[in-house]
Design goal:
Shape: globular
Protein name: Glycosyltransferase RgtA/B/C/D-like domain-containing protein
Distance between the termini: 53 Å
GO molecular function: pentosyltransferase activity
Strand order of the largest sheet: 1-2
Keywords: Cell membrane, Glycosyltransferase, Membrane, Transferase, Transmembrane, Transmembrane helix
Strand content: under 5%
InterPro entries: LipidA_mod_glycosyltrf_83 (IPR050297), RgtA/B/C-like (IPR038731)
Radius of gyration: 21 Å
Helix content: 55-70%
Organism: Candidatus Segetimicrobium genomatis
Number of domains: 3
Largest sheet: 2 strands, antiparallel
Length: about 400
């Protein structure tokens, strides 16, 4: 019939193809499909490939042959599987580009379910052409696995809210566990799932607690094997990632300006600096390393409350500005990139306002916004989490 718009399936395919073509073109034109991961302008890429190579060479999850949990494991296993299959970085980048394009489709489907087709379409189109996310697809960074898993978690939550079957709820918990094994901070997201369940079904309804209980158990079962491995390999109870103390200190210390400060001889002021090559101390356990970092950070916060309050504001400014976590100031980027970033922020504000109007349906989406801001205030702020040992195609 005349006047009918494109079908949802046609829209999905259009978004997917557009996002795929843009990402392939940018990756080929900037990083290069066949460029080795070690030559990428991202220090995290080199760390990830060190772990992957140790894993493939039979040394287990180790950095330079030393057992570690300095980064969550799932993305490393993901890369190891791809390199086992293909043995070359080009297919790895193609798979990541495919995941990036699929993320746009997932965002459309989630937006359509939570709001309406128009909202889903706007969100998906913005995601498909976001300069940062387009560029990330060519790098060996966790964002390439984290984002599709997180969006899949959100999409499935909309169906659990309507019909909480055992399979769907368990699947939701499994996805949350996988997200946490990609980004360790999301272990702390479980309480939001409880609030979400109570919000949907009522504080006196046993269904809310059954849903949360099954989701929490499923997530725990996914995470537990890695926690057991860490206890055996490191001699410490490490649910996912072992350097939480260092990460906390990195954002809360005398030199911090809202971003991330590496501990070293010029920045560490609480005794001898880290000396084991992995930001720990020789002769100390993982727990003792973390305790030393936490004590130093908390001591500074207690002794400098006014500076700490100012620091919190700087963290949020950096989160919503255009900065990398470790840079001293804002990046120098083309005006078009800045304009797109401003457009993205404006649509994000509009989306939050729209979500607040139907907050029960959108609680997990709003919870992610809250969680991101709280995590930033606790640790450090930055639009990107990359080290200054990397460069973007538009950086100075």
């Amino acid at each position: 019939m005349r006047g009918e718009g494109p079908s949802p399936r046609a829209l999905l395919w259009s978004i997917f193809v557009f996002a795929l073509v843009v990402r392939l073109a940018v990756t080929a034109g900037t990083i290069g499909l066949s460029t080795p991961a070690a030559a990428e302008p991202a220090s995290d890429s080199r760390i990830h490939m060190n772990l992957v190579q140790n894993l493939l060479n039979g040394h287990g999850f180790s950095y330079n042959g030393v057992p570690t949990a300095i980064t969550p494991p799932l993305y490393i296993f993901f890369l190891a599987g791809l390199y086992t299959l293909f043995g070359h970085p080009a297919p790895v980048r193609v798979v990541q580009v495919l995941l990036g394009a699929a993320s746009c489709v997932l965002l459309y489907a989630t937006g359509r379910k939570m709001f309406n087709p128009a909202t889903g379409l706007i969100a998906a189109v913005l995601l498909s052409m976001s300069p940062v996310l387009v560029y990330i697809g060519g790098l060996h960074l966790t964002e390439n696995l984290f984002l599709p898993l997180l969006l899949l978690f959100l999409w499935l939550s909309t169906y659990v809210a309507e019909q909480p079957t055992g399979i769907s709820v368990a699947g939701l918990g499994i996805l949350l566990g996988l997200v946490a094994l990609t980004r360790a901070a999301f272990v702390s997201f479980l309480p939001f799932v409880l609030i979400w369940a109570v919000t949907l079904w009522g504080v006196r309804n046993p269904l809310a607690y059954r849903v949360y209980g099954l989701a929490a158990i499923s997530a725990s079962l996914v995470i537990m094997p890695w926690t057991v491995r860490n206890y055996v390999a490191l001699g410490a109870v490490v649910p996912v990632q072992s350097n939480s103390g260092m990460m906390f200190w990195a954002g809360n210390n005398p030199h911090a300006a809202g971003g991330w400060i590496w501990p070293g001889s010029e920045t560490w002021t609480a005794g001898s600096p880290p000396d084991d090559g992995m930001y720990g101390w020789r002769g100390l356990t993982v727990d003792q390393d973390n305790q030393r970092y936490m004590r130093a950070a908390i001591t500074w916060i207690r002794e400098h409350p006014r500076d700490y309050l100012e620091l919190l504001g700087r963290k949020l400014v950096r989160l919503y500005g255009f900065t990398r976590a470790e840079d001293a100031g804002a990046l120098q980027v083309p005006p078009t990139v800045v304009l797109f970033h401003m457009l993205l922020l404006m649509t994000a504000v509009a989306g939050v306002l729209l979500a607040i109007r139907q907050w029960r349906r959108c609680f997990l989406l709003l919870a992610l916004v809250i969680f991101t801001n709280v995590t930033t205030l606790l640790f450090s702020g930055g639009t990107f989490r990359w080290s200054n040992r990397m460069g973007l195609p538009w950086s100075s």
